[in-house]
Structures are given as structure tokens and as C-alpha cells.
Amino acid sequence: RLLTAARTGPARTLPVARRAAPRAVTAPGRPHEPPADPHRIEDAANAEPTPPNLLVRPGSVTPFDRGNGVRTLPHVGVWNCRSATLTTGITAFAVGTGLPLHTHNVEESVLLLEGRATVTMGEETFAIEPGTSTWVPAGVPHRFVNSGDTAMRIFWVYGGLHVTRTICATGETFAHLSDGDRGGITLSG
How confident is the prediction for the chain on average, in pLDDT? Predict the structure, then answer.
């Protein structure tokens, strides 16, 4: 197709750029698959991104039982994306549970998704509601406790891939989400 450019002087024709048809791109080592139609929801829902990009689908996450009604769903971290520079996940707390006061070797931000929480950061303690977020630098003691009468869920982001947790009461340090990092506690009423 050609367009005529409107200008003073002699008319010129300009080529109109045409989009090339999408090509199937496969990562090295992947079998060739026919191109997905990005307009079909079925194709988009089953597609996987080209590495190093990552989709973490709800059914693909293995829960990590921290003990005493505390369960973590690890999303992005050393277990599935070694090129990441952060670690993320969701932790659910049953009523009356929490984690002991602890520190990390990296900064952490937490968003309260649902429920009610009491959060301690350093020497201060706050009651928070869903939609509230926190940030603590590396080395600052902190903890979340479910202070409500329903389940509590938090979304957390660590500013590093190799995360440790040090329990303030004992000085013990564990790799994040390792067997030693179970530590869910039930609070006495």
C-alpha cells in the first residue's frame, strides 16, 4: 500500500510500514511449538515466558509449612530463578500465630493482604490493617503476629536472593525457608 503525502510541491508516495506476522520463538532446547494466538485466552493462559522471565502460577507452588499454623508459598527466589535479585512469597498465619522476633541479612518489605496484624519493627509495635505495607532495613528486629479473629496473609519481598533469618532470642541463623527456618509460634491468649 502507498499513501500520498499532502504537502506543497510535487506529490510523493510514501511506503506504509506493515507489521510482520508473529513468528514462533522457541528457547534453546525447547521443541518447536506452533505459534500461540495471543488473542485466544486459552493460549495465553497456558503459555510460558521465555527464560529468564518467570510466571509463578498458583498451582505450581509447593507450600512450606513453618509449623503451628504458619504456611509460606514461595514465589520468586533461589529455588526457581537464580538470576533474580529479590525473593518473594506469601505467608498465611492462622489465628493467634506468628513468627518470633528476628532479623534478616537483607531489607524486607511486607504488604498485609488480609486479616489483622500486630507488627513489631525495632522497638515499636503497630496494629495494621489490609493494604498497609512495611519496610525494614537489614539487621532490624521485626515480626508479624495475627492479632485478628480470621486468617492473616502477607506478601513479602526481600532485597536479595540469598536470605537468612536470625532469631533474636537465640542468635541462631538459618537460610530462608530451609529446614531450620520453620519457627511458627502459637501465642498464648
Answer: 84
